[in-house]
């Protein structure tokens, strides 16, 4: 899990815990503020005037130009200068979900969170702008990892990698669809035109992911593995994307898709798996908010929550000791 992913998971868990318990010796609000600020340090492209990390400058301003596609923008993966779109999309999905659930508690950080989301969605609109193709990555990770340098100074290859009908990548495509759908809900009351654009693209990208099924491990393996191989299969991303599209559209098609495929997820996964690769617990949490009966999804969602509570008999995580 990259530092960016760890910050996101920390942010969601800490926000939830922070709302029910305040610990004087730990400033969780400051930690969450910094977790959002971290996104600004990872920005790629032409930086805006609102950039708070002023020691960062413009970088990678010609991404995609060698093949005639504008892929400028987005985020570098934590610790290197590659744009890995699979975990990046998960980051945007999670940040959008955080704003949907806790935006009213973010205070002045809400605006920064919205800017962080749009920095990602603007890039994903570019990465999905050619029908039949979804760009999955920018930058040669092997060359990048062989030379540690500032993005402002990098001279390593900025090779774009894409999945297509012939060489599918359902996991990266469906995760981008989830990010766009979740973000469309965030911007619905702020910028309806932009929200509608995100949702329209989410529908298109999800259809592509579902129609042309396959893992990007098979088509882009030498460049995405072992960095962000898909180890859990792409079926969870398809369910994750369909669930977010149902939340965003209320269209019966997406709900029926979830109901028709959710049992396959339950047979092949642990209820506690959740991260950029395995979306199982997140799917169960989302579905449990839509179903009131005791289905496997609801039961597994409860198990997941109980596994996080410190005093639960089924607790499976450790917390940093509190200094009193």
From TrEMBL:
Entry protein name? cellulase
Q: List the molecular function annotations (GO) for this entry.
A: cellulase activity
Cited Pfam families: Glyco_hydro_9
Major enzyme class: hydrolase
Instruction: Report any one BP term from Gene Ontology.
Output: cellulose catabolic process
Signal peptide range in chain numbering: 1-25
Q: Which reaction does it catalyse?
A: Endohydrolysis of (1->4)-beta-D-glucosidic linkages in cellulose, lichenin and cereal beta-D-glucans
Q: Which Gene3D superfamilies match?
A: 1.50.10.10
Q: Which residues form the Glycoside hydrolase family domain?
A: 28-321
Alphabetically ordered keywords of this record: Carbohydrate metabolism, Cellulose degradation, Glycosidase, Hydrolase, Polysaccharide degradation, Signal
Q: Give the top-rank taxon of the lineage listed in the UniProt record for this protein.
A: Eukaryota
Q: Tell me which species this is from.
A: Theobroma cacao (Cacao)
What Enzyme Commission number(s) does the record list for this chain? 3.2.1.4
Tell me its family.
Answer: Belongs to the glycosyl hydrolase 9 (cellulase E) family.
InterPro entries to which the protein is assigned, alphabetical: 6-hairpin_glycosidase_sf, 6hp_glycosidase-like_sf, Glyco_hydro_9
């Amino acid at each position: 899990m990259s530092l960016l992913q760890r910050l996101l998971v920390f942010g969601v868990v800490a926000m939830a815990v922070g709302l029910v318990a305040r610990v004087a010796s730990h400033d969780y609000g400051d930690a969450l503020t910094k977790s959002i600020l971290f996104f600004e340090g990872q920005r790629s492209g032409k930086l805006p005037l609102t950039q708070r990390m002023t020691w960062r400058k413009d970088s990678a301003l010609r991404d995609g130009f060698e093949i005639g596609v504008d892929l400028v923008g987005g985020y570098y993966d934590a610790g290197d200068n590659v744009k890995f779109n699979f975990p990046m999309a998960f980051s945007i999905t999670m940040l959008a979900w955080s704003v949907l659930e806790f935006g009213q508690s973010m205070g002045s950080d809400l605006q920064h969170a919205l800017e962080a989301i749009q920095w990602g969605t603007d890039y994903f609109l570019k990465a999905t702008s050619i029908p039949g193709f979804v760009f999955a990555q920018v930058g040669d990770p092997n060359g990048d990892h062989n030379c540690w340098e500032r993005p402002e100074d990098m001279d390593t290859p900025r090779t774009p990698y894409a999945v297509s009908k012939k060489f599918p990548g359902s996991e990266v495509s469906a995760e981008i669809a989830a990010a766009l759908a979740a973000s469309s809900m965030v911007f619905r009351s702020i910028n309806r035109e932009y929200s509608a654009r995100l949702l329209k693209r989410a529908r298109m990208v999800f259809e592509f992911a579902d129609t042309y099924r396959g893992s990007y491990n098979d088509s882009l393996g030498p460049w995405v593995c072992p960095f962000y191989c898909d180890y859990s299969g792409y079926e969870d991303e398809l369910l994750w994307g369909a669930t977010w599209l149902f939340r965003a559209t209320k269209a019966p098609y997406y709900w029926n898709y979830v109901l028709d495929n959710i049992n396959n997820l339950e047979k092949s996964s642990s209820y506690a798996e959740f991260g950029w690769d395995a979306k199982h617990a997140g799917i169960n949490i989302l579905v449990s908010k839509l179903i009131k009966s005791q289905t496997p999804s609801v039961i597994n969602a409860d198990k997941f929550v109980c596994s996080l509570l410190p005093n639960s008999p089924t607790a499976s995580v450790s917390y940093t000791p509190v200094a009193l």
